Amino acid sequence: MSLTNGQYSGEELDGFPIFSLDCEFIGKSFEKADLKRMSEDRLFVGLDRDGTIVPIYSDQSLALVDDRVRKIINQLTKLPQTTVSIVSARSAERLKKDYYSAEAILAGNYGLEVYFPDDTAVIQKEALEALPLLRSLRQLIADELESTLPICLDDHVLSLCLHYHLVPEHEQQIVHQKVSAFAKQFTGLQFRALPTSYEVLPPFDWSKGHSLSVIAQRLGLDDGKTCFLFIGDSEADEAAFQWCNEAGGISILVNSREVEGSAAKYRVHSPGQVLAFLQYLSGSRQ
Ligand SMILES: [Mg+2]
Asked: Is 224 inside a domain boundary?
């Protein structure tokens, strides 16, 4: 399927320099049955944030939701039989600052905390129990690493993410050694090594797939009559792709290259294409 028709022309996206203007999908085209379900069925749209609706920046302060993305998400939330959720590693508090429509479900910390439009929330009890440990570790990282090295520590409250991409290569070993020592000290937390960061999470099995289960159950969307769609760009989104696939839904990976082993059924190559796709989706459900 191509989105390079008049409705989604470069003109419409003009002045949006952070996004690619090339809206033509690469990879597989959408199957007719999926297009039909996306336009006609009750639809759940799950969206990762960073790398999916916001381009990746090494300077986190630049990673903001563009007005056009916010506008299209807000339009989607107002359509009948359409539910939209942002499912991100960032805290729900941070997602609230993105100022989506009040109808958008905000699932922070991979959905360990989910805030619904009716002002209710589902927060995993075990995650809350890990709070004192996370706070102690946060202080140790500040004292022993942040004070001497250019690390960036994202405090998502229910998880921490320590980025070390700005640390000179010859000093990165210090980060690895410190984190290894922290992991031995804080056995009640889960440490996860990512390419240029470490994530620290509550010590139980959790993923964005679990988060989709929570949302589907809470909203009664788990009756087999909803088309679940999830768009994400990283390993952390694979569980959500799998969950959607198992529910007979649609999964879309954002990556300019083929990713071996990804469960995603479709692929787009940039957040710009995600925006174009969401515009298409909104138009098809009017
Ligand atoms: Mg992402």
From this structure: yes
Distance 165 CA to ligand 1 centre (A): 17
Lowest mean pLDDT among 30-39, 159-168, 209-218: 30-39
pLDDT in tens, 61-90: 888 999 999 999 999 999 999 999 999 999
170 with 242, same domain? Answer: no
Angstrom distances, CA of residue 4 to CA of 7, 26, 279:
8, 12, 12
CA 142 / ligand 1 centre spacing (Å): 25
User: Range of 146's domain?
Assistant: 128-201
Domain shared by 197 and 135, yes or no: yes
Q: State pLDDT tens for residues 120-150.
A: 999 999 999 999 999 999 999 999 999 999 9
- Distance in Å, CA 33 to ligand 1 centroid: 27
Which stretches does DSSP call E strand in 73-225? 82-87, 105-108, 113-115, 121-123, 152-155, 160-163, 190-194, 197-201
CA of 89 to the centre of ligand 1 (A): 8
- Give the Å distance between the CA of 236 and the centre of ligand 1: 7
0.85 surpassed by pTM: yes
| Distance, first Cα to last Cα, the chain | 19
Looking at the structure, do residues 193 and 78 belong to the same domain, yes or no? no
Q: Which residues pair with 41 in a beta bridge?
A: none
Residue 49 C-alpha to ligand 1 middle, in angstroms? 6
Q: How far is the CA of 58 from the centre of ligand 1 (A)?
A: 13
Kindly tell me if the per-residue pLDDT of 12 is higher than 60: no
Q: Do 132 and 106 reside in the same domain of the chain?
A: no
* The two structure tokens encoding residue 233: 């760009």
Q: Distance from the CA of 137 to the center of ligand 1, in angstroms?
A: 24
CA of 233 to the centre of ligand 1 (A): 5
Pick the range with the lowest mean pLDDT from 21-25, 29-33, 173-177, 248-252. 21-25
What is the domain count for the chain? 2
